[in-house]
């Protein structure tokens, strides 16, 4: 469930841009007990995420995404997600 929330957070970053863009880079590796993926678009949206299964049911995930907001600010969100929830850190700059 928390994995889904994190993935949705990354997709939200893409939707914020509200414009079409081409993929510059992308990679993904999905295994039974771990994963990693990332992408970068021509509209300055970038996201990376990786995670691993700890025990039988707990996913430990970390990642970041960044984009330029509608008011021109660069926004970068770095996060972790674990058994205790989603823990984002948001940075904004001109």
| Secondary structure tally: strands | 6
What's the Cα radius of gyration?
14 Å
Low-confidence stretches: none
Strand order of the biggest β-sheet: 1-2-3-4-5-6
In what range is the share of β-strand residues? Answer: over 45%
Question: How is this fold's topology laid out?
Answer:
Elements: H1 2-17, E1 23-30, E2 34-41, E3 46-54, E4 58-68, E5 74-82, E6 85-93
Antiparallel strand pairs: 1-2, 2-3, 3-4, 4-5, 5-6
Please tell me about this protein's structure.
By secondary structure, the chain is of the alpha+beta class. Helices cover 17% and strands 57% of the residues. It has a six-stranded antiparallel sheet, covered by helices on one side. The protein is flat. The model has no long low-confidence stretch (mean pLDDT 84).
């Amino acid at each position: 469930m928390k994995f889904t929330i994190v993935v949705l957070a990354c997709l939200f970053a893409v939707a914020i841009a509200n414009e079409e863009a081409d993929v510059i880079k992308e990679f993904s590796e999905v295994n039974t007990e771990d994963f990693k993926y990332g992408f970068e678009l021509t509209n300055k949206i970038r996201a990376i995420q990786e995670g691993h299964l700890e025990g039988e049911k707990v996913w430990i995930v970390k990642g970041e995404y960044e984009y330029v907001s509608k008011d021109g600010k660069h926004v970068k969100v770095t996060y972790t997600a674990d058994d205790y929830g989603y823990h984002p850190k948001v940075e904004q700059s001109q």
